[in-house]
C-alpha cells in the first residue's frame, strides 16, 4: 500500500486547550514524513494548549479556524484525543459540522483515544466499528456503533474510511494506518 501523501492537505481539528500532545505531534510528524501538509484547525485563532495527561505541555499555532474552512478544503481529517479536547469540540456546532463534513464528502478520518466523542456528537458512528479509550464504549454503542478493544481499527462500512485507536501506546500502529489510508 502507498504511503505517499504528496499534494494532500490534512486537517487536525483541536480545541483551544486539552489536546493530548503526543496524539497531535506523532500523527502530525507521520503526515509530514509521508509528504503531506498538516494544518491545525481550531475553534479559535492564536495558539492551542496541549497537555501531557493533565499537565500543561507545549502550545501550537493555529493555522485556521472552523469559521474559515470546510471539509472541502482538505483531503482527510485527524482528531487527536485528550479528555477535554473532544469534550469541548462536541459542544461547538461548527466543529461538529466540520468533522461531519468529511463523512458527507466520503473523505477519510482518523480519531484516537477520546476523540470519537466528536464523532458521536456528529452522529456518524452508526453502523461503524471503531475503538477508543475504553470509557467511550457505552457512548459509541448508544450512538449505534460497534466498539472493539483493538490497537487500531480500520472501518470501511460507511461513506468513508474511519481509522481509530485507543491510546498513546497505540500511536505507532495508528500513524501507520492513517498514512496508508490517507494515501489510498
Automatic annotation (TrEMBL):
Residues 8-180 form the DJ-1/PfpI domain. The keyword Nuclease does not apply. The keyword DNA-binding does not apply. CDD domains: GATase1_PfpI_like (cd03134). Gene3D superfamilies: 3.40.50.880. Keywords: Glutamine amidotransferase. Belongs to the peptidase C56 family. NCBIfam families: PfpI (TIGR01382). This is Type 1 glutamine amidotransferase domain-containing protein.
